[in-house]
Amino acid sequence: MDARELREKYRGFARWYDLAEALPEALGIRRLRRRLLGQATGRVLEVAAGTGKSFPFYQPAPTAVAIDLSREMLERARRRALELHRRYVFAVMDAEWLGFRDRAFDVVVSTLSTCTFPDPVRALREMGRVCREDGRILLVEHGRSDQSWAARYQDRRAEAHARMIGCHWNREPVELVKAAGLRISRADRRFLGVLHAIEARPA
User: Fold this and answer.
1) In which band, very low, low, confident or very high, does the pLDDT at 187 lie, cut at 50, 70 and 90?
2) Pick from 33, 81, 143, 179: CA 20 to 30 A from residue 115's CA?
3) Which domains does the chain have, with CATH numbers?
4) Predicted local confidence at residue 14, as pLDDT
């Protein structure tokens, strides 16, 4: 699925996205977001911000830029930011072609997104490019279980799942981060090894 197809898919999915994310949140995504994203300070870029589900977990102070491939998702994110009295900047943008100069941000954040990028390694390299050398890349992701029975189920259903919502749920986030040349400072796995909290630094 390329970027155009993904954009079209999320045009209609935007109104249901928060409901679809309720189960992952209950299984631990919300706790991982709270723990990891509260560390974001300075100038922050959130890649594939979606409907802004991460916004409540940021400290009030950071200057944040939120980008997403889908205008419809960003409209919902904008409304969420207003409800939280946050003055963020929003832009429709492809994660694989970030329109920012090198080393422009102190922290780059992405949650539940490497599963959807057509080329996740390229997107992660772009995150590394726009992050300061002493900055941090904070990822809350899901991927292939480390339990064989669950992983086999994910593998069997992977193609159908991707066609339905553009999510490749059996990708390996840690391996993708390594392939992008980012340096992992910390990586934790929860809930059958499916949920990941990853802190990395640019190459």
Assistant:
1) very high
2) 81
3) 3-201 (3.40.50.150)
4) 62
